[in-house]
Amino acid sequence: MLNLKGKTALVTGAAQGIGYAISESFAEHDADVILTDYNPKVVDAATELNQKYSGNISGLVMNVMDDESIQKGLDQVITQYGKLDYVINNAGGGVLKPFAELTDDDFDKTINLDLRGTFLCMRAEIQLFLKQGYGSIVNTGALGSVYNPGGMGAYNAAKNGIMGMTQAAAVDYADKKIRVNCVAPGLTKTPLNDGGFLDKILPTVPMKRYETADEVAKLFVFVASEATFMTGQTILSDGGVSVGLK
């Protein structure tokens, strides 16, 4: 079994859903974990995990759309843990509407949270990793960037941008012992998307089922910690959707 004792991982958007599952997966492997979210409930989520696992697990309220909040959060992590090995930039969301129905506000909200939020986090994290001398970043992409059932114009723009930034940063810092990758989950039911939208798409998934948050969480942990010669890649975990519809 993978042993990450002595390693430190930070996960954004970790109060629930995939982010919480990723945090728990790191914790299962004995890593120290910092759960971050704009939602104060992230502190309760961290307390819950801290009671179950042996690592040092803490919750941190952090807004990925605010440069100062991000920097404060990272400074606090270094003060408390001394280093940061892995970061999962998972915070995100989006307005799902047919393209011409998107308002300026819909588009701006989605781009600011998903794309700009990931950019701000990556920039601060890379600056930290350059001082530290190493680090691994995994961003959250989306199946919708390669398979589009409609209604995802703003969300796809943001998630495609994240894949592009992943590639750019990976090339810029590959010789600095900094790896940057992206995992694109498939149809994963979480509290944020459990509204019937995914049920309409499910019949097209070759495996004919949803992905669980626990399943994709394991992939994030592997890419962050074990795929040591991988950088700049976007890994799809989609039940076969990207290679064909059935």
TrEMBL record:
Stated name of the protein: SDR family oxidoreductase
PANTHER family per record: 3-OXOACYL-[ACYL-CARRIER-PROTEIN] REDUCTASE, SHORT-CHAIN DEHYDROGENASES/REDUCTASES FAMILY MEMBER
CDD domains: SDR_c
InterPro entries: NAD(P)-bd_dom_sf (IPR036291), Sc_DH/Rdtase_CS (IPR020904), SDR_fam (IPR002347)
UniProt cross-references to PROSITE patterns, sorted A to Z: ADH_SHORT
Keyword check for Hydrolase: no
Domain of life: Bacteria
Similarity-based family: Belongs to the short-chain dehydrogenases/reductases (SDR) family.
Pfam families for this protein: adh_short_C2 (PF13561)
Coiled coil (residue ranges): none
Keywords assigned: Oxidoreductase
Record flagged with keyword Oxidoreductase: yes
